[in-house]
Amino acid sequence: MIWRLALISFVLSAPAAAQEQSAYRVGMKIAQGRGYDNADCYARVFARHAVAVERESGRRGWHAASTPEYNAEQRSRCGIDRLQARTPRRQAQADGAGSIPYRIGLGLAAHRDIYGASGRCYARIFETFASRVPSPDRNIRYGVFGAAEQGFARELQRSCGLSY
User: Fold this and answer.
1) What is the mean predicted confidence (pLDDT) over 32-52?
2) What is the DSSP letter of 99?
3) Which has more pLDDT, 92 or 160?
4) Do strands 51-54 and 60-63 pair parallel, antiparallel, or not at all (unpaired)?
5) pLDDT for 57-97, tens place per residue?
6) Considering Cα of 154, then 157, then 163, then 164, what sign does the dihedral take?
7) Which residues 6+ apart lie within 8 Å of 164 measured at CB?
8) DSSP alpha helices (H): ranges in 35-75?
């Protein structure tokens, strides 16, 4: 009888252990992607607070809500202040720093010796007006063509004080 109860207990707890382990792996990927020094600690705290969520695609994922308890535990145990770390990432996202057209715009600005705030302004305007161009070599290419060129030139002048 005891053997049977132990077996049932093990079988019922195995999925929970597997879920914790995969939540840990997700936490580890997040921590490494954000460049946290103490990724293992972040992943352990993430796994404790994470819940399984159903994605639109039907796949299951993990999410740890940004609660005061979660943030305090990350800060006290791991030395990671999530709220402070999120501000630069949000600013970079607001500037479009992660998008391909934005990065291409920064490159074009640098090619024209435009740097700093003016270069970032150029990149934001390029990102807005650029469209994807078919490429025979399968590389992703963006450019400003046709009627969009006039709008691009006007917006560069108006927003950035730059001529096209």
Assistant:
1) 89
2) S
3) 160
4) antiparallel
5) 777 888 888 888 888 898 899 988 866 655 554 555 555 55
6) negative
7) 149, 152, 153, 156, 157
8) 39-49, 68-73
